[in-house]
Amino acid sequence: MSFQSAAKVTLKDAQLRRNIGKATTLIREKRLRAVAEVPDWEPLRDAGEAIKAHTMATLPEQLEKLEAAVTAAGGVVHWARDGAEANAIVASIAKRVGTDEVIKVKSLATDEIEMNEALEAEGIHALETDLAELIVQLNPEDKQSHILVPAIHRNRAEIRTLFEQTIAQGQSLGNEASAIAEAARLHLRNKFLTVPMAVSGANFGIAETGTIGVVESEGNGRMCLTMPRVLVTLMGIEKVLPAWQDLEVFLQLLPRSSTAERMNPYTSLWTGVRPGDGPQEFHLILLDGGRTNVLADEVGRAALHCIRCSACLNVCPVYERVGGQAYESVYPGPIGAILTPQLNGLGSAPSLPWASSLCGACYEVCPVKIDIPSILIHLRGRVVREEKSRLTPEALAMKGMAAAFSTRRRYEAAQRLAKLGRGPIVKAALPGWTAMRDLPEPPKETFRDWWKREHGEG
Amino acid sequence: MKVALFITCFNDTLFPGAGKAVVTLLQRLGCEVEFPLEQTCCGQMHVNSGYEHEASGLHDRFARVFADYDAVVSPSASCTAHVRERIESVGGKVFELTEFLIDQLGVVDVGASFPHRVTFHPTCHSLRLLNVGDRPLRLLREVRGIDLVELDGARECCGFGGTFAIKNADTSMAMLSDKVRHVLDTRAEVCTSADTSCLMHIGGALSRGRTGVRTMHIAEILAAQE
């Protein structure tokens, strides 16, 4: 479905509009306060951008260093060209371990490659342990709608009902958030203690030391990363950072941008395996999944700098109104509009680069300064050149207008046509505009006609 | 000071009043205003719609037409931002009106008088591409008799976005509804801004709703001596 059609549906959902509008407004204000506390926020953003640009420019070298360091620390590194390869690796590890259930730390990379569905097809159930992911997973009809808060489209009452019908097995939970959360806690605790294998994503992978990092708020991640005997981490290749010291920049940028916290409640960092402490078997799967194609686009590649904070979603006026599901991707919002078409191919989501008014609010908040509006414009150009016929009414109108604007004589003739309501612009644009808004009364004379009358043709 | 007016094709064709107001205002402040009749369109619509190739001739044309002027003034933040970013040779000397008044002419009180209740919508491109900050508001505060009321959610996009308003008409309208609600909440009789494109959008809904609130370009208020 095109973004336009999907948005038409979600825009009519008053409850969804209310839930998302309320949540994004709240987090937007909190983020502003959290960022205002940091005197060197702008230099930090510059540093984040510079580190990411350097990493992308040296990506093969960084990944090989990471592989060597993880291996030296007792981990096993796998390379996956695409989602199918990555899913097959995870399934084969689970089968060797002999488990039909794995517990999961919230991970966009695993959602991107539909790992849960792939494992399910192999008879392995992947249980989401992040509260919001669990909420989405418990309702087979539901889908994530936000990078950080996948169930942002749900309110408390909806979640209570869902839990009562599923994990609380008919028990009444009342209206207190803590009581509703307790139902999930009880459900998950048993799994943390018994399931032998966990799957996670990664916020960072440090090439220098082989350390992998996950930041989270609920402690479910810490459980998954420390309790099971086997840990498998799926990491997009763009998540590598060259040096340990780089964390000093990103551990400041990420929590303030995403949850508006000074520091996230749980920061888990681990390097390979350590006898007697934590998982005794660690696998790191490095996923390409279209990323090297993105890297080949000099303008578009900055999308790979994203640290998945979701600040751009929270400030986006489009996202705020249509919600995440209209983007039909695990990456919604402004970052999704530039990432999804690049990762999956422009033809897979040709309407997403237009899912923006180019207001620039996303660029203003991005902690690594991804110029999302410029990349959107760039991708629009690519879609027009690579995916569309040169003979669409729009292409012809654009060509016609460029020709009309190319000389003064033609331009003035076009103005006269427009005034009569017969110009190509007016014709193409009218219905889309006037369905909901009035057009201004056409002026009696153009500015230039007035000028010529007052000052002559000079 | 001798300045060239870059009217923009949009204002030239649809909102000549904004251009006339710029001329009146600048002349009152002692500028000699010229209007190069060879100007057409800066190419922003083409670039932002994905037709960069078609815009290159327009960029070259713009550079030629304005090459010989010391300063170029425009009543459009959006088009000013476009030429500043895309047309290297002349982009640096093109100024949005409020930038020009405050930074180049050094005036804040332009001698205007406009005894009406007014709210100001700072457009996205004036805020985030040009960083004009509070320049428009500083100018408006000095206008005699004006009752300037703050607009809630002022920094939020009105949903225009060029072809966005047509291609994503439903989403655009959802954004516009909120903007209009905030405008009506101010009880202002006039909504003003530094771009007539956003004003045409906001005004289109104000008119459709028969709200009786009118839109005016900021130049028209600054030129007024009611």
TrEMBL record, chain A:
**InterPro entries noted in UniProt:** 4Fe4S_Fe-S-bd, FTHF_cligase-like_sf, Helical_ferredxn, LUD_dom, LutB/LldF, LutB_C, NagB/RpiA_transferase-like
Molecular function as annotated in GO: 4 iron, 4 sulfur cluster binding
Designated name of the protein: Lactate utilization protein
Looking at the record, the residues that make up the Lactate utilization protein B C-terminal domain are 383-454
Q: Taxonomically, which superkingdom?
A: Bacteria
Instruction: Say if the entry is tagged with keyword Transport.
Output: yes
Q: Which residues form the signal peptide?
A: none
Residues forming the LUD domain are: 63-287
Q: Which residues form a coiled coil?
A: none
Report if keyword Iron is assigned: yes
Pfam families (alphabetical): Fer4_8, LUD_dom, LutB_C
Protein keywords? 4Fe-4S, Electron transport, Iron, Iron-sulfur, Metal-binding, Repeat, Transport
An example of a Gene Ontology BP annotation on this entry?
A: lactate metabolic process
Every copy of the 4Fe-4S ferredoxin-type domain together lies at: 303-370
Automatic annotation (TrEMBL), chain B:
Q: Name one Pfam family in it.
A: CCG
Could you tell me the superkingdom of the organism this chain comes from?
Bacteria
Entry's Gene Ontology molecular function annotations: oxidoreductase activity
One CC-aspect GO term? cytosol
Residues of the Cysteine-rich domain: 3-83, 118-202
InterPro entries cross-referenced by the UniProt entry: Cys_rich_dom
Protein name, as recorded:
(Fe-S)-binding protein
